[in-house]
Amino acid sequence: MRRIRIAVAGLGVVGRRAVRLLKSNRQKFLGLGARVELAAVADREVTREARALGLGPSVFRTRDPQELLAREPDVVVELLGGLEAPRSLVLEALRKGRHVVTANKRLLAHCWEELQEARASSGGRLYFEASVAGGIPLLQSLESLSANRIEALYGILNGTTNYVLSRAEEGAPLPEALAEAQGLGLAEKDPSLDLSGQDTAQKLSVLASLVTGAWVRPEGIARQGITQIESEDLEFARARLGRTPRLLGVLSLDWGRARGLWPSPKAVRVEAHVFPTLVPLGHPLAGVRREYNAVFLKTSEAADLMFYGKGAGPGPAASAVVGDIFLLARDLLSGLPAQRREPGRAVLRPIDESLSCFYLRLLARDRPGVLARIASALARRGVSIASIHQSQAGGNGVPIILTTHPTSHGRFRRALSEILGLGSVARRHTVMRILA
Amino acid sequence: MRRIRIAVAGLGVVGRRAVRLLKSNRQKFLGLGARVELAAVADREVTREARALGLGPSVFRTRDPQELLAREPDVVVELLGGLEAPRSLVLEALRKGRHVVTANKRLLAHCWEELQEARASSGGRLYFEASVAGGIPLLQSLESLSANRIEALYGILNGTTNYVLSRAEEGAPLPEALAEAQGLGLAEKDPSLDLSGQDTAQKLSVLASLVTGAWVRPEGIARQGITQIESEDLEFARARLGRTPRLLGVLSLDWGRARGLWPSPKAVRVEAHVFPTLVPLGHPLAGVRREYNAVFLKTSEAADLMFYGKGAGPGPAASAVVGDIFLLARDLLSGLPAQRREPGRAVLRPIDESLSCFYLRLLARDRPGVLARIASALARRGVSIASIHQSQAGGNGVPIILTTHPTSHGRFRRALSEILGLGSVARRHTVMRILA
Question: Above 0.90 for ipTM, yes or no?
Answer without folding.
Answer: yes
